[in-house]
Amino acid sequence: VFCDSKRVKNAALSLVPIVGWMKMYRVKEWLLGDIVSGVSTGLVAILQGLAYSLLASLPAWYGLYAAFFPVIIYFFLGTSRHISVGAFPVLSLMVGAVVTRMVPDGGPTVNITGLEGLSIDDQRAMVSASLTFLIGIFQLGMGLLQVGFVVIYLSDTLVSGFTTAAAVHILISQLKFIFGLSVPGFSGPLAIIYILESIFTQITSTNIHDLVTAIVVMVVVFAVKEINERFKSKLPVPIPIEVIMTIIACGVSYAFNFKDNHGVDVVGLIPDSFETPVAPNIEVFKETAVDAFPMAIVGFAISFAVAKVYAVKHDYVIDGNQELIAFGVSNIFGGAFKSLASSTALSRSAVQESTGGKTQIAGILSAIIVLIVTLAIGFLLEPLPKSVLGAVVIVNLKGMLMQMREVPYLWKKDRLDCIIWIVTFLASIFLGLDLGLAVGLGVELLAVVFRTQFPRCSVLANISGTDIYRDRKDYINIYEPEGVKIFRIPAPIFFANIDFFRGKLLDAVGFNPLRILRKRNKALRKIRKLIKKGELSVTIALKEFIRIDVEIYIVACDPYIIEKLKSCSFFDHEIKTSIFFVTLHDAMLHILERHPPLSVSEKVYNNYPDKMPNSSSNLRSREKIVSKVDYLCLCVVSYLP
Fold first, then answer.
1. Where is the STAS domain (predicted)?
2. Better-scored residue on pLDDT, 299 or 632
């Protein structure tokens, strides 16, 4: 491979995708939609940023940083034109578990150099920033190594079970804001049980103002979201109900002084400037490396899945490896400014796309809205009750929680997939999201081995009047040629499943060829003795034994496999390449040409061998061997050498 100027140019352009789509930007057609989308998405991003920072046990404004710094980098490096980059609830919750483990509410802080003398909030912000930086390093490394394919090991079933469990964790974590309680942070296995125990032991101390406010917000937001969904074809843009309710809640809280008069926990001070960039803490790297890697995978997997949906819908291509690079650099850049770890949220991306967004210009405009709010009018959000943010988070969990409806469908469709979903869900609920993901992945890999080692083999037959062959158990009007068995192998053949296939094949044909071969040789020896004594002549009795030989044909096999068999000296004077056929129907036509259906008299002779002429009934009654299969077709999917 030679390196020339053209290759260098193409490589550079692939690393900066903005150059490609900016050349084809249609200003008159797309700009207005991008502006409307950017403003709408920016308002939602502000609210979600404030809310999701609570999941990470951080002060609210760090969520605003996640809606600004990573968006700028993704604008230049990302390949998706429609996803909204920023905080993602599942990722924020995973970050929060690490933050509370290293800097607990009441217990001693993990002994880390560089955190001495800082307040709890500052310590947590430093841990979160370093963790975000490390997540970015992992993502960038995977992107440069071109290993974006790793997401294929996270199946839709596993991701569904994992995100549903994460939604339950998020729901439970927001109850303390809904009820206005002081609940310490828990992490590790059974953390969800400890949180619920703490909530129920304090339930009598519920702040009624928080509870009523949260219920009102949830009911209104949920109702208007349903209206948006039902009439989305008639509405020019979705009603920004979260933003509206936030403004109303801020006004009411300020007017009645909820914080001082009623003890309502509010967002509080929001700085009117960004913090100066900081270097990550290396000791935090050492403590969180095991946690950061699965977070890097989860953050990328979710964003890539959402990006694929919109890429297919709008007919353009996204590059998984470039997406890893884009999110890696985004999180490194964001971590330097103490941003929360970024990915994407389906609800926020849906707003960006449904309001007319065509490119990431909408994304950069949303970042500008966040910038304006942070620097100019952030103080207006200071009286916002945290219970309102908790209510907004819970309402936005509807999509993830509704994934539970998939379980009955999966049970009917594929019970192994259903088991993967349930195990991943339960493990993530009780062991924590990090261990739950590991358990789910392990079960999924075991399922792959199980499917490969113990596949569902089947005997096929012809649908009458067609050249179509299906499992004979699934159809009534189906034709199975006499003397022919079609055995389908639906998985690669290799050392681990060869014995399983052999057993299924013997079950399908109804006899063991080795046993018949031994019986045939024994009978032949007796016949030779009788012939030698002159007691039996060599006629039709021998033809019955000849019919015991079963001819094998292999169909629908990949040409590469045939070449592999040739190189392995598989073929000889007995096994020839002529046993291979391109299609099953071709093989069947060949068999029927060589072996036409029996006449009525031949069937009678087969069913009543004592009536056959020139035969010794006594010998046949003792040594009768009848082969039910003369031809065997093996439908081979593939072969693993």
1. 474-591
2. 299
